Amino acid sequence: MLSAVDAGDAAALLDAVPPGRRVALVDPRFVGHVHALRLGLTDPRFAAASLPGALTAQPEARPALVRALHRTAAAVGAGAPVVEPDTDPAPEDRTVPGRIAVALDAEGIAVQRPELGSLTAAVPTDAGQRAAAEAERDAVDDEAVRLRSAVKAHDGFFTTFCISPYSRYIARWCARRGLTPNQVTTASLITALIAAGSAATGTRGGYVAAGILLLVSFVLDCTDGQLARYSLQYSTMGAWLDATFDRAKEYAYYAGLAIGAARGGDDVWVLALGAMVLQACRHVVDFSFNEANHDAVANTSPTAALSGKLDNLGWTVWARRMIVLPIGERWAMIAVLTAFTTPRIVFYALLVGCSLAACYTTAGRLLRSLTRKARRTDRAARALADLADSGPLAQAVAAVAPGPRGAFTAPALALLGALVMVGSALFLPYGSRLTVAAAALYALLSGLAVARPLKGALDWLAPPFFRAAEYGTILVLAARSDAPHAVPAAFGLVSAIAYHHYDTVYRIRGGTGAPPRWLVRTAGGHEGRTALVAVLAALLTHTSGFTTALTALAVAVALVVLVESIRFWVSSSAPAVHDEGELA
After folding, report:
1. Can you tell me the distance from the alpha carbon of 528 to that of 523, in angstroms, rounded to the nearest whole number?
2. Global pTM?
């Protein structure tokens, strides 16, 4: 820590700091809580951040900070006050850090100003103000606020009332012993994998142990995020691990239950794959809707207004959060049913519960979209196109076909294609060449659906329809095949493809865009993979070769997408993000 006597001296000291380091300016008169400074000066997710009397800048914002500081020094002169009190009505802007924050805003550098709540951050100018600021600071327990703020502001009922009251203390215990969120995340994954292994034994004792371990894994899953917020240890690697490990844990546990059931003579692989498909499609509905309306202009809706009114009634908030069956409620249900019932009942409950949740959330989004008067932006259209995951076949169609006009054309074409594809796989004779013809028609309709920018009111439905078509086709063809172990192989293939789609989502949410086009082309796109599975089913009818082909395809897709995903998330271009509000 270096002290400067005035703005000119601060500029000189900043010039001497290596350009790759983060810097902070703090007014020497600052009075406030230590955690207020943590929130304002140590969060790695923002290029620049400010609070009264303090400012920080990451390396990418350093040049603008230095320019602003030099201008300030030149304007006020060495040793002179930065701004006269009567020339600027904002008290925090009368300090050097405050004035520079305004200058950074003017240059287009987004300056994060964290919500401090009951925390104090002030720059008193006389003894009376200082005494008042110190009294205000001493009246609030800094550590208690820090502990409360470690918990998500919006979370499910089970997590809020059954996990967070004690998991926050586990997070503090971890922080005081130097543990990182990534270590806790990894511990959660390992615990879930042990739970899956216990379920795979197929014994009652194994099921009881699996249920208990799954709950322990979820406690650790909550703890890692609370530790990140408590110690502000947000990181690119943490974002990737947190975003993907939840899915890995859930899918591994489904597989463990299916293996355990098979040991007892009950084949539930179709139910396990169906639960995974349903859950993934639910998520893509959420992601697509949110991206379509992320920055919509004139974003108003009577349905949204009604939802806001219901949020003001305490009990309705919790009821609505429970209806959507978020990860806390879902894992609690899975754990309890695993311990006391059978895998088949677990999957029946999952399918029924997730179906009802999907109907509720999708109906609300449809009403909002139809009643909302909004103009969607190019960014939203680009995000939906990326979420569509169109491969070479659909892109070729989109390049040569103008695409039909109409407010609901894109989702209608996507829905028609999904119905044709899944319907042919379900109702035509297994292995029929007509299923391959249906896959060709599906590729054509998919290309027409994305030929125009996806800016319509319901265009966000196109990616979910594509996911349902691809996953559903793989599920149906594997289930109808007589090839041994075809459904477990399909489970692995859908898991690999779903990972690619989740990876796309989190890249977009991090502001870095979708995966590179070469990856999408190499992976074949949704229509290419669907067509390939249809061809394999036709060529390898009722033979073990179909299982081998699905397994090989799963391994190939997993290798390609995992290598590129790991390369991206450990690179310097990956965003420092953390899941703050998704109920998963």
Report:
1. 8
2. 0.86
